[in-house]
Amino acid sequence: MKIFNITFCILFLISAALQYNDPDPWLWIPIYLYGAALCWLAFRRRHYPLASLLGMAAYAVYAIYLFFERNGVWDWLTKHHAENIAASMKAETPWIEDTREFFGLAILIAVLLINYIYVKRKAKNKT
Fold this sequence. Notes:
elongated
């Protein structure tokens, strides 16, 4: 788990740094830094399950919003036939931007969930 957490800590830090030219860096830099901080703490064997749950809940609410909003993930899937979201670095359409953001949140949720389950199983095995 140490390699898992340091890897995602670094990836989330890089993701936060790349947000400086995003249309809404004030939102995305803290989102990625929160995930990086929790991974760093987990790497240091300091686990905060409530912080992970709060992060997952906030990320899930925003992911659901991005999925269903106009020009969101649903539109990308249905109206734009899931066109390539990695064709260029610059997102030229709103559905590509929202879909990329949705998958960023999905990765954050997955990482926090893996850490949360790991901590809960570890605590259960100690009893």
